[in-house]
Design a protein that fits this description.
This protein has about 240 residues and is mostly helical. It has one domain. The chain has 11 helices and 2 strands; from the N terminus they run αβααααβαααααα. Strands 1-2 form a two-stranded antiparallel sheet. α3 packs across α7 and α7 packs antiparallel against α9. The longest helix has 28 residues. The N and C termini lie far apart (about 60 Å). The N terminus is likely disordered.
Length: about 240
């Protein structure tokens, strides 16, 4: 039975032995909420105002930073992900539950909330939807690792620049244009690769809408907003597009 499997993730085993645990989805929401509140709150503290465009992009930066950590974990624990993919497939056959849902609603110990092994397991669970994340030869696997290592620095620069306008507007616009175009393009090619490889035929329509379209769309929709802001920053030469 899966409960006795030796390859059970440390998060599952440890959570059974301690009262101090938290659902993975709740911890994810808390991390994103704290990062977003920090940016919006810092702007209010520094300027005494609130801007919806700044708030939306701060939310996106916060999401991207947390997902980047997951993507780094994917690289650091790539062998673990490949092994665990089989466990989650067997787990779904026995329980009928979606592995991604089971992982996100399952508890992780507070002592392991930043463990690379814990968060790498989300990719093993997600490989039931898209098996490319358990195969390091695929585009999906490699583009996410690249995103994890490349985009945190420009994301942090823009997070701070949009809040405190410490960079010349044109410089922030150029950095933003590079980052947001890369995100739009990479996500679009991921969709092309997913459908081109016929992976959509292996999942239901509901899963396709939720896991492939909805979960990936922020990296296009927010990025398009970011591209607009970047163009305005360069063209206007100031931060007026962000309410400064």
């Amino acid at each position: 039975m899966p409960e006795n499997r030796a390859d059970r993730a440390p998060s599952e085993a440890d959570a059974r032995r301690t009262r101090f645990a938290i659902p993975a989805l709740l911890f994810t929401a808390l991390v994103i909420a704290v990062l977003t509140a920090a940016g919006v709150g810092a702007r209010f503290w520094a300027r005494g105002d609130f801007d919806i465009v700044h708030a939306l992009l701060t939310l996106f930066f916060s999401i991207n930073l947390w997902i980047c950590y997951w993507e780094i974990c994917l690289y650091l624990r790539r062998d673990h992900v490949e092994r665990r993919a089989g466990y989650w497939r067997e787990r779904q056959r026995e329980t009928g539950r979606k592995p991604a849902i089971e992982f996100l609603t399952g508890n992780i110990p507070l002592t392991g909330v930043f463990s690379p092994t814990v968060w790498a397991d989300v990719w093993a669970a997600y490989s039931e939807i898209d098996e490319s994340y358990a195969d390091r030869r695929t585009y999906g696997y490699n583009v996410d690792i690249a995103n994890g290592f490349v985009t945190p620095v420009p994301t942090l620069i823009l997070y701070a620049a949009y809040t405190f306008d410490f960079l010349p507007a044109a410089a922030a616009g150029i950095v933003g244009a590079m980052l947001f175009w890369q995100l739009t393009y990479a996500t679009s090619v991921y969709w092309v690769s997913f459908f081109g490889a016929g992976r959509h035929t292996r999942i239901g329509r509901k899963d396709l809408y939720i896991y492939i379209w909805a979960l990936n769309s922020p990296w296009v929709l927010f990025a398009l907003l970011g591209l607009y802001v970047s163009i305005r920053l360069v063209a206007d030469g100031d931060y007026s597009v962000l309410g400064h």
